[in-house]
Write a sequence for this structure.
């Protein structure tokens, strides 16, 4: 199963989300809050440059 780390107000995140829905793929949504959550070690392990969205 895919995991989408996203921020709901990000146009790029919404594009990926819509594409996953249109393709009928199973995925889990994980919301990343932009209050510093993107700098936590757990997220930096997935996205070293703290870019959103990330599809894993």
């Amino acid at each position: 199963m895919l995991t989408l780390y996203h921020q709901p107000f990000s146009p790029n995140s919404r594009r990926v989300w819509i594409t996953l829905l249109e393709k009928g793929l199973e995925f889990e949504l994980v919301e990343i809050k932009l209050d510093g959550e993107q700098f936590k070690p757990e997220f930096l392990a997935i996205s070293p440059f703290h870019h959103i969205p990330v599809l894993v």
Observations:
- The helical segments are 11-23, 41-44.
- The chain is about 30% helix and 20% strand.
- Residues 39 and 48 are 9 Å apart (CA to CA).
- The chain has a mean pLDDT of 95.
